[in-house]
Amino acid sequence: MPWVCTPRRPEASHHARMNQAPFDDWDGSPGQARALQSRLAAQVVLEDRLPTCVRWLAGFDVGFEEAGDITRAAVVLLDAQSLQPVETHIARLPTRMPYVPGLLSFRELPALLAALAQLSQTPDLVFVDGQGIAHPRRLGIAAHFGVTTGLASIGVAKKRLAGLFEPPGDAPGDRSPLRDRGTHIGWALRSRARCNPLIVSPGHRVSVNGALDWTLRCLRGYRLPEPTRLADRLASRRGAIDVAPTLF
Hints:
CATH topology: archaeoglobus fulgidus dsm 4304 fold
Order of helices and strands: EHEEEEHEHEEEEHH
Helix content: 10-25%
Distance between the termini: 25 Å
Number of domains: 1
Strand order of the largest sheet: 5-4-3-6-7-10-9-8
Radius of gyration: 17 Å
Strand content: 25-35%
């Protein structure tokens, strides 16, 4: 498992390259979107392929404005050792697709990519509020984001979309495997006592166990890990976030 490095002077900022257009050859229909999901799911890497020294984490979440007409994507960049937020951005784009169960990434991904483009540092690991491979076609929003950008990604969802699990224990950190059709696709994680478990699954370039380990590292007494907790706060417009720009 890659270790988190001690603070150092960051290298010059750069952005992740897009591996492909997010909706390559999509005609806008739900049927073709599902077929595209299945093709992209074959490109997901379920191994820990992170830098030896993980310096930057990012959390992403999406909300909506103007009765759903505007998609509002939030990103928070954090120092991986302290989990201190150092940069936040909001991207707003017209919503171009209605909500279709199982096709959330086609609705939200354009705004998430616009938020990513505003970062001055490329994150080493991304947390997305939503599913990774814990999805009927193994391509939730975190997996679609990861394959498109080439970034390591983890999905942390508040509800189950695919698979079955036994209820985890009541103590924070208790977990049980999430399985679908005989495959271990993630975890039901009790992140906080008296709260429903989170669904944690790898998105891209992270293993099933690695997704759990990194999520546990990022818990700070709340139900959500810090990257998505802070992004959720911005996306839902519950207040500003104090950042520490001196870390750059």
